[in-house]
Every structure is written in C-alpha cells, then in structure tokens.
Amino acid sequence: MLDIAILGDISKSLNRDDLSKFRKVVIAMIKRIGVEPKGNHFGLITFANSAWRHNLFKQTKYQDEEKLLELVREKIKNIAKKVGTRTDSALRLARSDLFNPDNGDRKEADNLLFLFTDGKPYGHNTADKELFQRLSQNLEVSERSLIT
C-alpha cells in the first residue's frame, strides 16, 4: 500500500513532446501500480512559476482510476505561460499538503515521491538548499532522466 506524490514540471523550458512523454509515463504508472480506496493513493502537483496541488490522498473521487486519469490528462496538458520552475515550491506543497495525516497520508502506507522535471530550475531562492536537505533526509533518492 502506497501514498504516491507526483510532482510535474510544466514550465516554459519544456517542449510539447516532453510534456506528452511526462503525461504518458504518469498514466502508465497509475495503470500499472493501480489505485483504489484500500490500496494505493496518488496526489498530483504541477509546477512552473508557482506550484499547484490538484488533489489530496484522502479525496475518494481520485481513488478511482478513471477519475485520477482524467485529472492527470487535464492538469498535464498545457505548458505554463509564465517563466519559472519552482521545484522548491512543489516540494514544500508535497510536504505540507500531501504528506500530512489530516489530508489522507496514511501511517500504514509507504510514501513515494516522483519528481518529473527537465532539470532546469529557475526562480529558486538560495535559502531553499536547507529545505531540500530536510526533505531528502531518510529518503532514497534516485535521479533518472525519463525525457531524453
């Protein structure tokens, strides 16, 4: 049983092909891993010049595969109009909103976070290094490029 956060870069530095590949990978992951009320739950955050949380683990509507896939298709569809890649804001939002017991983060479920980005940060505050260090404590980090 997993609580899975998906953080996706939709910034202007992406091209349409990158965005399409990202959407396809997320859809395939959901279909492969599965989602259900007593099983795996997903939370979706997209980011560019800001970060936007689209659902919570506890929202039963998105514990249905078709509803979750609709959300993914809708929110990972357009590249942002403003410049910026606020990965830091997305990570903060995941920590405060998704990985929060009040919002459905389950003690008995393992937590996973997938970060999809082209790796071109823009607009970060240098003080965010401390945040990244705190977030990465006790996490296994695997960096792989899914978009080549």
CATH fold descriptor: Rossmann fold
Distance between the termini: 31 Å
Specify the CATH architecture: 3-Layer(aba) Sandwich
CATH-defined superfamily? von Willebrand factor, type A domain
Structural class: alpha/beta
Mean pLDDT: 86
Instruction: Tally the structural domains.
Output: 1
Largest sheet: 4 strands, mixed
In which order are the strands of the major sheet placed? 3-2-1-4
Shape: globular
As a percent range, the share of strand residues is 15-25%
CATH C-level label: Alpha Beta
Number of strands: 4
Helix content estimate: 25-40%
Number of helices: 4
The secondary-structure element order is EHEEHHEH
Could you tell me the radius of gyration in angstroms?
15 Å
**Poorly predicted residue ranges:** 138-148
Keywords:
4 helices, Rossmann fold, 4 strands, alpha/beta, globular, four-stranded mixed beta sheet, 17% strand
What can you tell me about this protein's structure?
The protein is α/β, with parallel strands linked by helices and 148 residues long. It has a single domain (2-136), classed as Rossmann fold. Helices cover 34% and strands 17% of the residues. The protein has four helices and four strands; from the N terminus they run βαββααβα. It has helices at 16-33, 65-75, 87-98, 128-136; strands spanning 2-9, 41-47, 51-53, 110-116. A four-stranded mixed β-sheet has the order 3-2-1-4, with helices on both faces. α1 runs antiparallel to α2 (65-75) and α3 (87-98) packs across α4 (128-136). The longest helix has 18 residues, at 16-33. The chain is globular. The chain starts with a strand and ends in a 12-residue tail after the last helix.
